[in-house]
Design goal:
Blueprint (H helix, E strand, L loop, with lengths): L1 H11 L2 H32 L4 H28 L18
Helix pairs in contact: 2-3
Length: 96
Amino acid sequence: MKDNRASARAQVLTPGLLLAAAQAGCAAVVVVFAALFVGLWLDSVVGQRGLCTLGLIVSSVPLSLWLMVRIALGVVNRTQVTLPAPEPPDPLVKED
């Protein structure tokens, strides 16, 4: 019975799913860095000292979380996992 679980787990952890997880994480990092650089640029244009940068970084966190969830749900919708069929019980073995 443990062999069925191990094989199912091996089917789930495919390189494609691991790549999708890395893609979701990298997308979040890209959003936060984009907010950082745009915030620094806006601060230099406006003459503020960190107000735009702080505001954009704080507002980028929910955006990056939403983006990570959308990527993960998209991968889950495209993934098809087939579990192995259970073996029929042996009629000659008497169970207590």
